[in-house]
Specification:
mainly alpha; Helicase, Ruva Protein, domain 3; 200 residues; two-stranded parallel sheet
Length: 200
């Protein structure tokens, strides 16, 4: 995942628009698309880089250290083995683009850089990347458990379905006790009620 920003810049937008609409725009500055296609096809067909042990060590250490750092922060969301595999694929692709038979430690570090920069574009870091996979943080789990306890108390006191005025009160209590906004409190209430419904 790599989010791209499209920022308005009047001067640059004018220049781009002129270039796009200029029929006389020179072709000599552009790479031949045929050559690019042949290059890519050759690299895919002929180049199959293998990770050097040193490159493996770079990725393994990054993966383990990132998970360790995330585990020490209640708001972090652990990266998963799928992220490690993604890093491996990026490193291999980077080596292939350079027509190398082996993935070097430099390729592995470049994969980590690309991965980290991609996460940054969506407001994440390697320590919080688990959000993409739906991995809950310890803080998330505490909030879910606390909201569940609140809703269960209302269920035990008023039965099912919980009266409408008590639903509003339960949502308010979730909002205050879990320190979340109104929208999140409503979501937590619905999730708790759904679990209760499934257990009835």
């Amino acid at each position: 995942m790599y989010a791209l920003e499209d920022n308005a810049d009047y001067t640059k937008d004018l220049e781009l628009a002129k270039n796009l609409l200029n029929d006389e725009m020179g072709e000599e500055d552009n790479l031949d698309s045929g050559i690019i296609r042949k290059y890519v096809a050759y690299a895919k067909r002929e180049i199959h880089p293998r990770l050097l042990p040193e490159a493996q060590e770079v990725l393994i250490k990054f993966y383990a250290e990132t998970r360790k750092a995330a585990a020490e922060d209640n708001d972090s969301k652990l990266i998963t083995p799928r992220d490690l595999q993604a890093l491996q694929r990026i490193a291999i692709t980077y080596a292939r683009v350079h027509l190398r038979e082996f993935v070097t430690p430099e390729d592995a570090w470049e994969a980590i850089r690309i991965y980290s920069e991609a996460l940054k574009t969506v407001g994440l870091t390697p320590q919080t990347a688990g959000v993409i996979r739906g991995v809950p943080s310890d803080n998330d789990l505490n909030i879910i458990n606390k909201s569940m306890e609140i809703v269960k108390e209302y269920y035990q006191d008023y039965g099912y379905p919980i009266p409408g005025n008590m639903v509003k009160e339960a949502i308010t209590n979730i909002k205050l006790d879990c320190h979340v906004n109104d929208g999140k409190a409503r979501v937590l209430y619905r999730e708790a009620i759904k679990e209760i419904e499934e257990s009835i």
